[in-house]
Design goal:
Elements: H1 4-11, E1 25-29, H2 34-44, E2 49-54, H3 67-77, E3 80-85, H4 91-105, E4 110-113, H5 128-154, E5 160-163, H6 172-177, H7 179-198, E6 205-210, H8 218-221, H9 226-229, H10 237-248, E7 261-263, H11 264-270
Helix pairs in contact: 2-3, 2-10, 4-5, 5-7, 10-11
Length: 294
């Protein structure tokens, strides 16, 4: 299987990091594939420690990889990996992930709230089980993992919570298209907004990151017409490079930068990237599908 790192090696690496995550410990939810795994692999190239908490412990017929195969990729990239089968909806699983990270690596430097569920149905069409799933994973899971990691993050000189959620765009078009999903993603973003203010005196940075274009992920591929949609998407490495730039201080803002709703292009431009074509999966830049909420 070709990873996002392999694909980008062939096309060139537009992002040149000015900082490093060597020796830092990242706790990532839902990191067994897609954007979460790409972020983990990029950090691993610096020699970071990666704690992965994901539900997929056994091979899934519709999803590539498990938390254990992801750990193998992280190790191959140069990092140390701790794979944990867990669900952000279960308090005991999240507490175990935090405790295991501290026990194995001595602390936590960054939490990546990557786990998320998506259903773009209208209000009349949405199944309430899907509504509850999105609220539990997206909102409650983000809040819970951030909450339980706070004691460890306070002990780190690089404490950071990075959540993959969009800017709080109150244009009613977004809520009108898919209210249930919008509420769930904006709940994640409200967590960023509130924690950035609440934790300002603690020196813990809290930010969100969102892609400007559609990203090739299993969630998108499993949607109706998903295989067609990803032909006009970018690979997950653009989000991995943007997350690295934020966490490693490649933006020159230092640890004080908090409460931001970054986009991947905004971050990488600030880090010196001028050409985004290497991140594309083949479609010309003017034919890429914009992501929602922007």
């Amino acid at each position: 299987m070709t990873s996002s790192n392999d694909a980008l090696t062939a096309a060139g690496r537009p992002y040149q990091a000015s900082g490093s995550l060597q020796g830092r410990t990242l706790l990532i939810s839902g990191g067994s594939r897609g954007i979460g795994l790409a972020i983990a692999e990029r950090a691993a190239q610096d020699g970071a420690n990666i704690v992965l908490m994901a539900k997929t412990g056994e091979p899934h017929p519709r999803l590539a990889g498990t938390v254990y195969t992801a750990a193998e990729q992280i190790t191959a990239a140069g990092g140390a990996a701790l794979p944990l089968v867990g669900d952000v909806r279960r308090d005991e699983d999240v507490a175990r992930a935090v405790d295991s990270a501290v026990e194995r690596f001595g602390g936590i430097d960054a939490v990546i709230n990557n786990a998320s569920a998506i259903d773009l149905s209208t209000t009349e069409a949405i199944d309430m089980k899907k509504y509850d799933l999105m609220q539990d994973i997206n909102v409650r899971g983000t809040f819970l993992l951030s909450k339980l990691a706070l004691p460890a993050l306070r002990q780190s000189p690089h404490g950071h919570i990075l959540t993959l959620s969009p800017p709080l765009n109150l244009d009613p078009a977004w809520a009108g298209r898919h209210l249930a999903y919008t509420m769930a993603k904006y709940g994640m973003s409200l967590t960023t907004l509130g924690l950035a203010e609440e934790l300002a005196a603690d020196g813990i940075a809290v930010n969100s990151l969102w892609p400007c274009t559609l990203i090739d992920t299993a969630a998108i591929r499993n949607m109706p017409r998903g295989e067609d949609m990803v032909r006009a998407a970018r690979g997950p490495r653009i989000m991995a490079d943007a997350a690295h730039a934020i966490l490693a201080g490649s933006l020159g803002e230092g640890r004080a930068a908090s409460g931001n709703f970054y986009t991947d292009e905004e971050v990488l431009r600030a880090a010196g990237v001028a050409d985004f074509r290497p991140y594309s999966l083949g479609a010309p830049e003017d034919q890429l599908v914009p992501d929602i909420f922007l």
